[in-house]
Amino acid sequence: MLAVALERGGIRDMARGGDAVHIVTATRHDKGKVYQSRLLRSSFREDGKIDSETVGDLSHLPDHVVDLMRPALQDGSFVPA
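^ thats the sequence. predicted structure below, dont judge the formating
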């Protein structure tokens, strides 16, 4: 699903009606182990309140790929190093 959105012109197409999208890192601890998940989330207003929904799970991507995506989502541009 993420690859399709990238081909169509941007991750923002995956969000509802052009809502803001961002990456959230959630950390949880269970039985002495630490688990991290990275989610692509969309923020929107509904009935005057800010709400969000998960657009995609980025946990399977390497850290350096997610680090490249964060600035691209913030300003809408991407320039490879």
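The chain has one domain: 2-75.
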